[in-house]
Amino acid sequence: MAHQLLKGRKGLIFGALNDKSIAWKVAELAVAEGAEIVLTNTPVSIRLGEINRLAEQCGTIVIPADATSVADLEALVDGTMEHFGGKFDFVLHAVAMSPNIRKGRPYTDVNYDFFQKTVDISAMSFHKLLQTLYKKDALNEWGSVVALSYIAADRAMPGYNDMADAKAMLQSITRNFGLIYGREKHVRINTVSQSPTMTTAGQGIDGMTEMVGYADRISPLGNATAEDCAGYVITLFSDLTRKVTMQNLYHDGGYSSLLPVME
Question: What pTM did the predictor assign?
Answer without folding.
Answer: 0.94
